């Protein structure tokens, strides 16, 4: 009897630790605590909101200090709602950011966390705003460097690319309307404010967009690890469009055929490919060094 009692007291792999309060709810995993259930519900709610993206009347969601304050300082942004913790509100006031927008809602950190994915680092700020206007590809000024993204779907990568584009003063970023993340949530956080400085151009057909750039005088260069020429040795000129493909599949065949050149970034190590956001930063660095006046 003693042996049976000892075995029965051991927690199974799916049960909460001793002392944890169990919570019963329809559809919940047996033995889950209330905190686990609420965390899962918050994750699913945020995931559904993220998948909806920027629908017709849906707001762009931004969080994090640099992302939110850059948006607040952008006079083109139409702000819908601003939540801040007490500490973040005081910091906004100290830096003179509050006067740009006006009233805000001071809330507890949990009021912000429940609107986001569980691992989102909001730093006490949450913003709802209208999306920025998206110019047509024909409206891009024929100068400098433009980045073109061929169905890059990871929002963290696209956000990091925006940050590099802002650092290297790129004129715009062109993406496809499908198979591309919306400029909200994790993308905006990874961009760290760069959405306010680099116009986002969304197109239905990438090949036609590249043709329009070429008609405006752009030299269109695709970046691919299988490219037949080193980007650093290619005679580059402005205006220049650098085209990057998704990790794994790279540039699509029609995209390659539309480019004037398909180049690689020569790497000395054993690995010959880079994460797409790193490739974008390095490609921008090479291009800016090669172009006169940059």
Task: Report on this structure.
The structure is a single chain. This protein is an alpha/beta fold and 294 residues long. Helix content is 35%, strand content 17%. It has a seven-stranded parallel β-sheet, sandwiched between helices.
List the helices and strands and how they pair.
Layout: H1 2-8, H2 34-52, E1 60-63, H3 65-72, E2 79-84, H4 86-94, H5 98-101, E3 105-106, H6 109-113, E4 125-129, E5 145-150, H7 155-167, E6 172-176, H8 185-191, E7 200-203, H9 206-215, E8 219-223, E9 229-230, E10 240-245, H10 253-258, E11 261-264, H11 276-290
Parallel strand pairs: 2-3, 5-6, 5-10, 6-7, 8-10, 8-11, 9-11
Antiparallel strand pairs: 1-4, 2-4
Summarize the structure.
With 294 residues, this protein is α/β, with parallel strands linked by helices.
* Mean pLDDT rating: 86
C-alpha geometry: globular
Q: The biggest beta sheet, please?
A: 7 strands, parallel
The sequence of SSEs as H and E is: HHEHEHHEHEEHEHEHEEEHEH
- Rg of Cα set: 24 Å
Strand content: 15-25%
* Strands side by side in the biggest sheet: 7-6-5-10-8-11-9
Quote the distance from N terminus to C terminus: 82 Å
Total of DSSP H or I helical runs spanning 4+ residues: 11
Structural class assignment? alpha/beta
How would you describe this structure in keywords?
alpha/beta, four-stranded mixed beta sheet, globular, 35% helix
């Amino acid at each position: 009897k003693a042996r049976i009692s000892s075995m029965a007291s051991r927690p199974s792999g799916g049960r909460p630790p001793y002392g944890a309060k169990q919570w019963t709810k329809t559809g919940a995993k047996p033995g889950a605590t209330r905190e686990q259930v609420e965390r899962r519900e918050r994750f699913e709610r945020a995931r559904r909101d993220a998948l909806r993206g920027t629908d017709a009347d849906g707001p762009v969601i931004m969080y994090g200090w640099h992302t939110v304050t850059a948006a607040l300082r952008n006079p083109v942004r139409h702000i819908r709602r601003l939540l801040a913790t007490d500490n973040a509100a005081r910091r906004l006031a100290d830096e003179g950011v509050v006067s740009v927008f006006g009233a805000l809602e001071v809330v507890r950190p949990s009021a912000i966390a429940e609107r986001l994915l569980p691992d989102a680092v909001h730093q006490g700020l949450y913003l709802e705003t209208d999306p920025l206007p998206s110019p047509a590809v024909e409206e891009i000024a024929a100068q400098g460097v433009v980045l073109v993204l061929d169905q890059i779907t990871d929002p963290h990568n696209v956000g990091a690319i925006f940050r590099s584009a802002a650092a290297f003063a790129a004129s715009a970023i062109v993406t496809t309307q499908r198979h591309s993340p919306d400029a909200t949530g994790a993308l905006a956080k990874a961009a760290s404010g760069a959405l306010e400085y680099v116009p986002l151009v969304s197109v239905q057909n990438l090949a036609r967009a590249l043709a329009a750039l070429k008609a405006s005088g752009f030299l269109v260069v695709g970046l691919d690890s299988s490219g037949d020429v080193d980007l650093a040795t290619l005679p580059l000129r402005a205006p220049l469009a650098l085209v990057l493909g998704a990790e794994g599949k790279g540039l699509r065949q029609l995209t390659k055929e539309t480019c004037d050149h398909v180049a690689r970034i020569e790497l000395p190590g054993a690995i010959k490919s880079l994460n797409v956001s790193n490739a974008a930063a390095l490609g921008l660095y090479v291009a800016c060094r090669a172009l006169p006046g940059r």
